[in-house]
Design brief:
single chain, 367 residues, alpha/beta, seven-stranded parallel sheet, 13 strands, 42% helix
Length: 367
């Protein structure tokens, strides 16, 4: 099967990583993958570096020139392509409109990575109900948004971005702390995510400032536009001795085992955050907010602690609960890891997406 991914511009977060991870897995399963995206999209260079087949395509704007360029490529390659998977609004519209001018339209799968609610107007309803063969969401909450637009439930599937458990798995805490240069005797909270305001780092710093136990410290792994503001907040809250801003790290799998608790304080529009799934895969007790589809993986008091978004006191209390209760901490870590391995691995994702693509391609060819 030849799978074509299109992306207008997915930023530097989990979306391009999902596309690359999924594409590499599909190739390992014997499929062919091509990625169409503009050179300005972070996915372009990331996919090239991963050894994927990338075609530079102007997809950032919904205009006639971009539509004609895409239609020409589809027309020239129609006989070799089985399914198209779009990932942003602009490229979804361009694919849908290009299909109107093809004698044999390509089955279009739309993957929605963010939890922003689509506009409920006739054009959006046409796009999701008629132009798209199937809608994939990265969490159940996002899937139900499609149902609210009138998309039949059977035309939607939730497929969270799966974790590569050969990379993220339980490890030795002391060795991890030596590698990360984190003190052995302290109680480390860890956050691994892009630094932007909606990821909730500021909420975590406020919660930490309300905790008077000096050995409870935070390591923030990641980089982004919010770093300078966070540096100021660390000083403002008098937390210089308790916060490590580690910046971008190429090996996050070596950081998670160093943490006593992994935290996702996000109030972002997302599916299931990769940092949450990676912490569960590593066997670390996890505290997360109910942002996006996070509740699919973090079931309160079973696989972790789930709290409300932007709730400083709730986050503070959750941290103290796990600090004072090592038995609960170990229980949640174990149960979270078990649940992850049953539902959210890379292989689970590949199997689910392979079925979506195969069903769409077969349905189209039978007409």
């Amino acid at each position: 099967m030849h799978i074509v991914h299109t992306e207008a511009d997915g930023g530097k977060g989990g979306q391009p990583l999902r596309i690359i991870n999924e594409s590499l897995g599909m190739i390992q399963r014997g499929h062919q993958v091509t990625i169409l995206c503009p050179e300005s999209a972070p996915l372009h260079q990331l996919a090239l570096s991963a050894g994927l087949n990338v075609v530079t395509m102007p997809l950032r704007r919904k205009n006639l020139g971009n539509l004609l360029t895409l239609r020409r490529w589809f027309r020239d390659n129609r006989d070799t392509v089985d399914v198209v998977n779009s990932h942003n609004s602009a490229d979804t519209w361009l694919v849908a409109l290009a299909n109107l001018f093809l004698s044999r339209p390509l089955p279009l799968i739309r993957t929605r990575h963010a939890s922003g609610v689509p506009r409920n107007n006739w054009t959006t309803r046409w796009l999701y109900r008629k132009a798209c063969k199937h809608i994939v969401s990265t969490g159940e909450a996002l899937r139900l948004q499609m149902v609210a637009l009138g998309v039949p439930l059977e035309n939607t599937t939730s497929v969270p971005s799966g974790v590569d458990t050969s990379r993220f798995h339980p490890g030795d805490k002391d060795a991890a702390r030596n590698h990360c240069d984190l003190s052995q005797g302290d109680f480390w909270l860890g956050v691994v995510s892009h630094l932007r305001p909606n990821k909730g780092h500021s909420v975590l710093l406020k919660a930490l400032a309300q905790i008077t136990i000096p050995e409870i410290k935070v390591a923030i792994v990641g980089d982004g536009p919010h770093r300078e503001a966070l540096e100021s907040e660390v000083i403002q809250h008098n937390l210089l001795t308790r916060v490590v801003l580690a910046g971008h790290q190429p090996d996050p799998e070596r950081w998670f085992p160093a943490f006593d608790i992994a935290i996702s304080p996000s109030h972002d529009m997302e599916g299931v955050p990769q940092g949450v799934l990676q912490s569960l895969a590593t066997g670390i007790a996890t505290i997360a907010t109910d942002a996006g589809g996070t509740a699919d993986a973090v079931i309160d008091r079973k696989t972790g602690l789930l709290i409300a978004q932007q709730d400083v006191e709730g986050l503070r209390d959750a941290i103290l609960t796990l600090y004072h209760d090592p038995v609960l901490r170990r229980q949640l870590a174990s149960q979270g890891n078990e649940y992850l391995n049953a539902h959210f691995t890379r292989e689970c994702m590949l199997t689910a997406m392979e079925k979506v693509f195969t069903d769409a391609a077969q349905s189209s060819s039978s007409r």
